[in-house]
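Lecture notes, unit on binding sites. The following record was shown on slide 14. It pairs a sequence with HQG.
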Amino acid sequence: MYRYVGISKFMSFVLRHKPENFGLQLDPFGFVNTKDLLVVLQNRYGDVQLSDVEKVVKNCPKGRFEIKGDKIRARYGHSIQVQLDVEPSEPLEYLYHGTSPAMKKTILAEGLKPMKRRYVHLSKSKEEAFQVGRRRSRNPIVFIIKAKEAFQNGTKFYDMGVVVLGEFVPSEFIELADEPDKKNPLL
Ligand code: HQG
């Protein structure tokens, strides 16, 4: 199990950021032949089988990867350019973004930027966003994104399942979750 975490992280690195470092070329939608990726994994980890890759893909609760025919790709998280084959769609009224408290002022002033990735990454629940923020801080903050309103004002969102991708979100659509929110008292 532990080994699969390492393999999954390495697959993310290769398929989202640096395929060329490993002699791989992605197609426009981010796919590569699974057997070519397998060779890269075997060079690094030794005995990795196709069934291991399939397990990594299948057991990932976030749907990080997709296998289609004899090809595989990362479904989100890219820093390199890949074409999405999901149409933009109207998002839930609220989405969430968890991050470090150190980012609070900047994000409230500048909006949410994709930074090194192609898209902003958003969660469908406050709890998931909190977990995302935990990667950055022991005490993360969670922003409420008024996604529907942003969408109505032209921001595109792409529903990738657990993760929602978005374009730059202007600060007017962002609020800190901990602050009382009259529109959504359950939060
Ligand atoms: C921050 C993982 C300064 C933003 C996660 C974040 C997610 C700003 C960081 C997925 C900013 C970028 C993506 C601004 C945003 N000024 N900082 N204006 N706007 N930021 O890693 O969302 O496990 O690229 O708050 O769970 O943290 O890999 O984005 O802290 O789903 O599958 O800039 O990656 O998924 O960091 O994470 P990231 P993220 P996996």
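Take-home: The mean pLDDT is 95.
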